Amino acid sequence: MALHLAVSACRRRSRQLNAQAPREVGTVIVGGGQAALATGFYLRRAGLTPGQDFVILDASDRPGGAWAKMWPTLRTFSPTQHSSLPGWMMPPWTADDGYPLAAHVVDYLTQYENRYELAVRRPVRVTSVRYGDRGRLAVSTDHGDWLADNVISATGTWSRPFIPKYPGHFAGRQLHTAQYRRASDFAGQRVMIVGGGNSAAQILAEVSEVAETTWVTPRPPRFLPDEVDGRALFEIATARRRARDAGQTDTGGVGGLGDIVMVDTVRKARDRNVLHSRGPLHQLTKHGARLYDGSQVDLDTIIWCTGFRPALQHLAPLDLRGPHGLIPTEGTQARKEPRLHLIGYGDWTGPASATLIGIGQTLRTLPTTIK
Ligand code: FAD
Q1: Would you say the CB of residue 354 lies under 6 angstroms from ligand 1?
Q2: Alpha carbon distance 17, 31 (integer Å)
Q3: pTM summary value
Q4: Which of 141, 161, 357, 368 has the smallest CB count inside 10 Å?
């Protein structure tokens, strides 16, 4: 009897150990937004089997990446034919004659991952990537661990909203673009919108219909001509980056990716005469803010449309960060750790690589060692 119990305990213990043993795989892709899906597309095209040769682990409980979390009235700044991932065009937007809403991008990304049977596992949050045994990278998650030959990090920026520090303290409500849902939440209020990019302009356009708005921008906002859309911005960004890489002078151009695209709501706001920046913010006060021109504004709410930072916390144990908290890369490959790639995030991982149309171009340089 004692022997039988001992053997059972031993078997149980061995089963537990096996259950806890990390699963082995060629490549772990961290994230499940457009950057991860486009990467999956290229790996699959190179002959790798999703779920077997590589796994995609996404912390979100539904497809779409950041697009599923953006406010529902957000419009893309590029038409559908210039917002596509590799392999399959985004279906046309037919609901109105404007640019697609965020939900259209979510539908597209959902269909994309089904179409290519990318077998995204969600919700699975990667908590850390470390140096593992036998020359592999150890990936810990809230649903078990993995040992991988390569890790491709594609975690985006949405989970790390950035709010710059200003002197003073404001006692009213403050929120970031990431928390903004709808203009009606601010009806009848005095609202300051901080930031000079597309998010700020689109939020200002709709909030100004129901609230008294003040727009502050660190530098004068740059509006693109009405006929220039995100496609042109992407082409300009790529040309500038190529010129810089070739050691040529940056020729500038009509705009950069931060310049404001005149989508329908923004054009209408211009026609209502609300698209006027009051210049930079100087400091916060208990009841509002003081601007650089010395004027004081009383406020109920501040909406910070001040951008995001790359979500790289899971990579901290690798200790690869360089200046400005970014991981230096050669193309998409981390300079000090060739088994790690960073996809999406921003220009430092490829020209316009944080955009729908730009990510495919970046991934063409994904080294064959991954495949
Ligand atoms: P995300 O879409 O953020 O996806 C990252 C995924 O990784 C998420 O699903 C997240 O849950 C997951 N994740 C994060 N951390 C972990 C972890 N530790 N473990 C596992 N999973 C994790 N681009 C355009 O081309 N056109 C536009 O019009 C446009 N408009 C934009 C408007 C706004 C307001 C913003 C913020 C961006 C816009 N962009 C636009 C830029 C870009 O297309 C999006 O930011 C896009 O979401 C970036 O895709 P991604 O896959 O890199 O990151």
Answers
A1: yes
A2: 28
A3: 0.90
A4: 368
